[in-house]
Amino acid sequence: MSAFEARVFSGVQPSGNLHLGNYLGAIKRFAGLQSTHNCVYCVVDMHAITVWQDPAHLQAAIREVASAYIAAGIDPKGSIIFNQSQVSGHAELAWVFNCIARMGWLNRMTQFKEKAGKNRENASAGLFVYPSLMAADILLYKATHVPVGEDQKQHLELTRDIAAKFNNDYADRIAELDLGGEEGYFPMTEPVISGPATRVMSLRDGTKKMSKSDLPDLARINLTDDADAIAKKVRKAKTDTEPLPGEVDGLKERPDAANLVGIYAALAETTTADVLKEHAGAQFFAFKPALTDLAVAKLAPIADEMRRLNNDPGYIEGVLADGAERADAIARPVLQGVKDIVGLLSSRK
Ligand code: AQP
After folding, report:
1. Is the shortest distance between the CB of 84 and ligand 1 below 6 Å?
2. Which residues make beta-bridge pairs with 146?
């Protein structure tokens, strides 16, 4: 049993085109954790600018992620919703962690390799140290649990490596200042990656992750898509010619089929095995309309609520300001502890 108070932290980048993968892999699960945990949900705008963002659109994109959180059922009074750049502790702790993380660790991050592509020399330094900022986001709140999609698993492992190295490098100082229990100053945060849709794939290629930046638009279902757009994208989703199998093993080597069945299971809040039991032997011309009906029933109310909230920017900005104040109140003493441990001088506590 950890000595740390259980706390959930997670975030989504306001980099446009929120999609079904963000919803099923992250946002839907954020909402579900509120009944059992204290939750802090961040719009990670400082992460977003590690690649170019049009300043004319970024503020609206920040509000849109906050709208999606609320529309998906996150209660802004119970949980904390805020944007990262309004709490300066994220940047301050990230700098300390840049001095803890090793170049070799960061060099192994597959997301950097994918996003930087062949033109590595031209990638921003921010993109390279993205995982240090992510560790800071989490550990600034001493979060014990982080719900994320499968793609973030490696960054979560790095967060644990950074926490462990900090706890170890400064063990004597932490003990001297009486700032940590047996585990040290920071907890060993657990990733929460579970359910049938931790990696939703592109509708055009079941071997590629559904992603915000993927072109064409037919590859993903956007959270703001209307019923017609959802129906068209499901109808055009790539499949094979075989009927659905009766067992999960029958989906091996069938990535496009596995993707659609996984999406169905996550939306219906059941398992892939149960979906296959119900639809064994069905051809895609029969399964796709069932998936469309389910997707529209689950997503249309969220899209409607997002549209309503997007028309009320004053309300969303009020939520973000209140959330930033509450987040800052948790973050400040944690950051002060870090400064004391490291030996930085603070004459204005
Ligand atoms: N396809 C996915 N399936 C399941 N979960 C996913 N997530 C993202 N894509 C999928 C999860 O959504 C959360 C927020 O992701 P993010 O916005 O911080 O960044 P990302 O993962 O880089 O999103 P994209 O869509 O892939 O954006 P681009 O195209 O800009 O690279 C995370 O918990 C993530 O796991």
Report:
1. no
2. 191
Range of the domain at 304: 217-309
Decide the pairing of beta strands 38-43 and 7-12. parallel
One-letter amino acid at 288 equals K
Assigned domain for 282 exists = yes
**Among residues 174, 85, 180, 169, which one has the least CA distance to residue 133?**
85
pTM for this model (two decimals): 0.95
Residue 348 pLDDT class (50, 70, 90 cuts): confident
- Which residues are catalytic, by number? 115, 209, 212
DSSP calls for 84-136: GGGSTHHHHHHHHHHTTS-HHHHHT-HHHHHHHTT-GGGS-HHHHTHHHHHHH
- How many distinct structural domains can be found in the chain? 1
CB-based burial, 178-212: b 16+ in 10 Å, e otherwise: ebbeeebbbbebebbbebbbbbbbbbbebeebbbb
The answer as to whether 330 is a domain residue is no
CB 15 less than 6 A from any atom of ligand 1: yes
Q: Please indicate whether residue 199, judged by its CB atom, sits closer than 6 Å to ligand 1.
A: yes
Query: Nearest residue CA, atom 19 of ligand 1?
Result: 13
- Is 231 within the bounds of a domain? yes
**CATH classification at residue 258:** 1.10.240.10
Report if residue 223 sits inside a domain: yes
Q: How far apart are CA 214 and CA 200, in angstroms?
A: 13
> Counting atoms of ligand 1 from 1, which one is nearest the CA of 200?
3
Q: Is 149 touching ligand 1 by the criterion CB < 6 Å?
A: yes
Which segments of the chain are extended strands (E)? Answer: 7-12, 38-43, 80-83, 145-147, 190-192
In single-letter form, the type of residue at position 98 comes to N
Instruction: State in Å: Cα 209 to ligand 1 middle.
Output: 9
Per-residue pLDDT tens over the stretch 243-275: 999 999 999 999 999 999 999 999 999 999 999
User: Across the chain, which distance is largest between two alpha carbons, in Å?
Assistant: 71
Burial 66-98 (b: 16+ CB within 10 A, else e): bbbbbbbebebeebbbbbbbbbebbebbbebbb
pLDDT value at 281 more than 80: yes
